[in-house]
Amino acid sequence: MLVGSFLSGYAFWLLLGLALLISEFFVPGVVAVFFGIGALAVGLLTLAGVIESLPVQLLWFALISLVALFGLRRHCTRWLKGMVGGQAQQDLDSAGLLDQRVTVLTDFVDGVGDVLLNGAKWDAEASEPLRAGDTAWVTGFSGIVLRVSSRPGSSRAQ
Length: 158
Known about the structure:
The chain has two domains: 2-81, no CATH class; 89-149, CATH 2.40.50.140. It is 45% helix and 18% strand. It contains five helices and five strands. Strands 1-2-3-5-4 form a five-stranded mixed β-barrel. A hairpin with a 2-residue loop joins β4 (135-142) and β5 (145-149). α2 packs antiparallel against α3 (32-47) and α3 (32-47) crosses α4 (54-81). Mean pLDDT is 80; it is low at 83-92.
């Protein structure tokens, strides 16, 4: 009987809610937090005496959790994981790629070729013709593709 009253008591729901919120720090996926919100809400509703029986508590937990998950996840994902939009490209250069000197490995055909940077071959794009053996500078990047130019310092103008 003690286990049944604990499972339907507000303490269980509040502890479950806190555990789910804390678990989001260890296994991030922006999912557990919404079930934590549902558990905390049911715990507070149970504490206030609004709901009492375990089946009703489970129903409210499921409803609140799913509404929070599907209604708020898209908005909260950006907030919890962060965004990079609106930042200058210089701020995004945590790898230190911008303004690095590269050696052109292959002639650029239709603006696409290969370059050598720090001993590694990279795919690259350029808006000007570059030939194998030329020296170029990194002006930007998109994923793992470098944008290069024959003029140093042109990333400042972008």
